[in-house]
Write a structure and sequence with these properties.
There is one protein chain. The protein is α+β, with helices and mostly antiparallel strands. It has one domain: Immunoglobulin-like. The protein is 16% helix and 46% strand. The protein is built from 4 helices and 15 strands. It has a 7-stranded mixed beta sheet with strand order 6-7-2-1-9-14-13, with no helix packed on it. Strands 8, 10, 11, 12 and 15 form a 5-stranded antiparallel beta sheet that branches. The chain has a 3-stranded antiparallel beta sheet with strand order 4-3-5. The protein is globular and about 55 Å long.
Length: 214
């Protein structure tokens, strides 16, 4: 199954400013597939259960994407875990699959129901914690894990940051599958709110790093 197009709008709710340890990130996305998903297909999405800091650090250190994951893709990756474990040549694969299996225990499952034809809409939210320097890094890969992509897929990401934060123009970027760096487009509203957008016809990873003004 191939994804033909995906649009995502990300809104950051500045809960950190009001005494929480995190910001709340809400994601609304629509995507078009070349054919409908099977009726029994589900997707794992970030849940409201708090992921322990130690697990978050472990996942971050191993470059895990906390974005949605197709259940069939997860099953295919961890389905041979029992064969991986006794094989010393597959230790890296074993560790990654173990982390993936642990990660999805903190995620919710949603039914993939089309909104028309082979078009789908999902929404989810998660907590984004700052690093020791106060930087928040949002990262995602589009299309989501487990979705195949057309060679000329249309990808668009729009992220709306809170008033009173500054994004890092160096760390904020898109990285295409061929390693090409994608330049973000920015708009600053009259209320000093940054809106960042990317558009690309490929399979990019997106990174947006921001920090509250002192």
């Amino acid at each position: 199954m191939v994804c033909l197009r995906q649009d995502a709008v990300v809104t950051v709710i500045p809960t950190k400013r009001f005494g929480q340890e995190y910001d709340l990130v809400k994601v609304e996305t629509t995507f078009q597939m070349d054919q409908p998903f099977p009726n029994d297909e589900v997707m794992f999405v970030p849940g409201k259960e708090v992921v322990p800091d130690a697990i978050l650090k472990l996942m971050t250190d191993n470059k895990f994407d906390f974005g949605p994951k197709l259940s069939s893709d997860v099953v295919s990756k961890i389905g041979d875990f029992s064969q991986e474990v006794p094989d010393p040549s597959r230790r890296d694969e074993t560790r990654k699959d173990a982390l993936l299996g642990y990660l999805i225990t903190y995620m919710d499952q949603i039914k993939l129901t089309p909104i028309g034809g082979s078009n789908y809409h999902i929404s989810y939210e998660f907590r984004l914690y700052p690093d020791q320097e106060g930087n928040f890094e949002f990262r995602t890969t589009l299309p989501f894990a487990g979705l195949g992509e057309a060679s000329n897929i249309d990808i668009q990401l729009i992220m709306v940051l809170p008033v009173g934060v500054t994004f890092d123009p160096v760390k904020t970027k898109g990285i295409a599958i061929n390693g090409l760096e994608l330049q973000e487009q920015t708009l600053v509203t009259q209320a000093n709110r940054n809106i960042i957008s990317f558009y690309h016809k490929a399979d990019p990873d997106f990174f947006v790093t921001y920090k509250y003004n002192a």
